[in-house]
Amino acid sequence: MPRREQVTERLSAREGKHGTRLSAANAIPERLDQVVSEQAALGEALASLSEELRKLAKWLEETAGRVEALDTKVVTTQSCVVKHAALMRELARGSLETERRLEELENRVRARNVRVIGVPATVGETDLIPFLENLVLAYLGLNAKEAPMRIENAYRLPTREAGGSARVAGTGTVLMTLSDFWARERILRAARACRATKFQGPKVSFFPDLSPATHARRQRLVVLKQAFVKEGAQAYVLYPAKLKVLCRGQTYVFKDCASAARLLDEIRQERLTMALIRNRLGLLVLGVLVTFVLYLLLPAIQHERFTSRAGSHKAQARAEEKGQRDVNVTVLTGTIAGSPSILFREGFLLQRAGTPSPKRLEVVFLHGQAFTSKTWEDLGTLTLLSEEGYRSIAIDLPGYGNSPPSDAVSTEQGRVAFLQHVLKELGIQRPVLISPSMSGRYSVPFVLVHGAQLKGFVPIAPVGTQDYTAQQYQQVQTPTLIVYGERDTSLGAQSLQSLRQLPKHKAVALPDAGHACYLEKPREFHEALLAFLGELQ
């Protein structure tokens, strides 16, 4: 390339670089202006943000103040609620106290009043006071001059106010006001001793005049008293409406039913706990006893096997003897006519046709307090004696079983006459009389008076033996078998001491038996009875 052209290119290049520098220098002021404007906008934004932050801080401060004020109001409200609750409790206590005082005031107003239940409706309003004055004097057994009692007022109560207390038709309830409190107390003390009395017709009763609330509380306390007594505690209802309970070695007096009910629940829980403990101990003792008995009986098994072989020959001979007699026994019932009618059971011996009926000894069975003639049938005694050739009869005493009660046996002479009547109506002559427990009231005086009419006498721990002297017993010549249980240390031992005075007696103690020994040891009892009857024949 020519030199001129090279120089021209270099000059052009220099001019281009210089123009570029000039254009860059011209752009710097524009950028500075842009930066300044952006900085100003940023300052305005920061100022605006600062203003918003100040507003937010102020709002937060105001909110904190409001929250603090609200907390103060909440605390104040809670304090008011607590005060209100305390006031409500105080008001409730005051209300209860007011009700109690009103109830006491009402009972004081009624302090001289007495409710008379059973006053005849025929007594007019004008005649009520004279009628009641005579009734009170007769009820207390007083003389009008000796201790006058003035009745200020008396009027009949409507049926709804009387509370349905007049149970007898033609009678009603009268409220009488006495002149003084002590006259009322005297009448009520007599009323507690004697609940009712007859005066010119129906029965008349006296009761205190209590307010409805007191009367209702007293009725609830009466129910609680019965529950306490059922649990084994001593309880009394006091005037006007209090409950006194003696238990745990302490004395409790309750005016409200809730406290008494809580104590009752505690007693029941304790009783249940003690019952569980006793049951567990009983099971433990029973287990020990069973183990001990098994330990004692195991060595005797071989001996029992040996003796049973020897006893089987006697049982076989007895069965053959019954088979030869060809006997069959049935127990039938009948009624002895009279006032009252007496039910009896008799074992009948059914024999094969052509078999002669031997002359039989007659045996009459009485019974104890909790039993009837059915006891001797269920025990098999009537059947056994009939099989052995005896005439066996059991009767239901008056007021037991199917025999109605009778006032004729309320005296000793009446009971003796009753037995004579029974023997006569059944055609029995010189029987053997079996008499357990309660029936001693019939048999013992009969033996003392009419002992010659009996072939024999078998008392089983009878009652009433201590009512007679040794001289009375020593005059009886009737053969007697005294039966009692070894464990009957009360009535059995007592009757044995008296009956030993009989000249012709023998005693049999049934081993390990209590008062009703013939029920606990029937085999031993039957063996002793059959042996005694065999001696009488």
Automatic annotation (TrEMBL):
Membrane topology: Single-pass type II membrane protein
Function, in words: Possible role in granule neuron development.
Subcellular location: Cytoplasm; Membrane
Name of the featured protein: Protein ABHD14A
Feature: compositional bias, Basic and acidic residues: 1-18
AB hydrolase-1 domain: residues covered: 363-441
Pfam families per record: Abhydrolase_6 (PF12697)
GO molecular function: hydrolase activity
Organism: Terrapene triunguis
Transcription as UniProt keyword: no
TM annotation in the entry: 281-301
